[in-house]
Write a structure and sequence with these properties.
The protein has about 70 residues and is an alpha+beta fold. The protein is built from one helix and five strands. A three-stranded antiparallel β-sheet has the order 3-4-5, with helices on one face. The model has no long low-confidence stretch (mean pLDDT about 85).
Length: about 70
């Protein structure tokens, strides 16, 4: 983990993933993170990206589906 002032960043990697997401939605989700005390992201192949925002009033979960490409 890395500590920057009051911010702590921790990363745990269990598997390599290869997914593509809409940058416009990623930016919207990132802007929402300023309202949270803690942001946890879960990323796994074949699954939507899960953001969990922990706030004083509870938590908010947002899912972002990966881009689908046809072969």
């Amino acid at each position: 983990y890395e500590e920057n002032g009051n911010d702590i960043t921790e990363m745990e990697i269990k598997e390599e993933v290869e997914l593509s997401f809409s940058m416009s939605y990623m930016l919207k989700f990132a802007n929402f993170s300023s309202a949270a005390n803690i942001l946890t992201m879960y990323l796994s192949n074949g699954e939507p990206l899960l953001y969990i925002y922990e706030m004083d009033i509870g938590e908010v979960k947002l899912y972002l589906s990966p881009n689908i490409t046809e072969s």
